[in-house]
DNA sequence: CAAAGTACTGTGTGATACAAAGTAGTTAGT
DNA sequence: ACTAACTACTTTGTATCACACAGTACTTTG
């Protein structure tokens, strides 16, 4: 059993991962990083810089919105919230993944048909 | 049914795809591109530049070897052949993919456990 | 009071897939 | 004979994305 997932394989899925987590309730950077580690059974420990890059990308696209938490003294937290558009993106990405899984299976496990 | 697989999802799998095809017999660029299209049921039409980049990368790593075909007049073809090391890489990458599939499923479909 | 943990941000780098363009030979249609 | 489509390989430049590294700042614990 591999302990970690490779960068190149996870690439392209980080936004969907974050959307899935936010779809279950508002959250903030540090907590999301820990949730990712937990959901992946420690196979993926997302880099902080990566995570905040994902936030910026998603917010720019309108898939998430953000607001500062009400922690008055110190320990500021920026909360993220999925938008209706983000939920649509999530649905779309999940379908895309389910499709891609089969295509990649065919491509890396498949035998070449003699007849065309 | 989506017609095409997204670039970001296929990324990182191209070398494994090529290794799988070469593991079934020597072949050359153009033919491999068509095999990829066929195996993916037209979901992935690899760009030529991408394919030749993959060849260079794999040859540099020692996973494949190449030789010019014996077509004496015109229509030159460069054939590629998987090496024993390439077969080991293929096996490794397939295991990695089977592992990654489950991790990504957990990450983009998984529910967050209330208890930690 | 120092160390570890929580929490957010910016800059720069590396890997990779592809678009675009070029070179060159072959085959099929009119 | 000519042109278009197809076969076949290569180079250059670009875009995306994940991350390493570095920095800022507050809190908790020994």
Key phrases:
mainly alpha; homodimer; DNA-binding; three-stranded antiparallel beta sheet; 116 residues; Arc Repressor Mutant, subunit A; 10% strand
What does it look like?
Chain A has 116 residues and is mainly α. Chain A is 55% helix and 10% strand. The relative contact order of chain A is 0.15. Chain A binds a DNA duplex (30 and 30 nucleotides) through residues 7-8, 10-12, 14, 28-30, 46-50, 52-54, 57, 73-78.
The portion of residues assigned to helices of chain A is 55-70%
Average pLDDT across residues of chain A? 90
Record the strand order, biggest sheet of chain A.
Answer: 1-3-2
Estimated structural class of chain A: mainly alpha
InterPro entries (chains A, B): Metal_resp_DNA-bind_regulator, Tscrpt_reg_PadR_N, WH-like_DNA-bd_sf, WH_DNA-bd_sf
Protein name (chains A, B): Transcriptional regulator (Transcriptional regulator, padr family)
Organism (chains A, B): Lactiplantibacillus fabifermentans DSM 21115
Pfam families (chains A, B): PadR
Short summary:
Chains A, B: It comes from Lactiplantibacillus fabifermentans DSM 21115. Two copies of one chain form a homodimer. With about 120 residues, chain A is mainly α.
């Amino acid at each position: 059993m591999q302990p970690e997932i490779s960068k190149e394989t996870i690439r392209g899925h980080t936004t969907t991962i974050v959307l899935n987590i936010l779809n279950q309730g508002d959250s903030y950077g540090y907590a999301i990083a820990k949730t990712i580690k937990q959901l992946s059974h420690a196979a993926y420990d997302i880099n902080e810089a990566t995570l905040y890059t994902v936030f910026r990308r998603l917010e720019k696209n309108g898939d998430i919105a953000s607001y500062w938490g009400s922690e008055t003294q110190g320990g500021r937290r920026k909360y993220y919230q999925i938008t209706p558009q983000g939920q649509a993106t999530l649905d779309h990405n999940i379908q895309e993944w389910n499709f891609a899984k089969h295509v990649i299976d065919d491509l890396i496990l498949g035998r070449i048909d003699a007849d065309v």
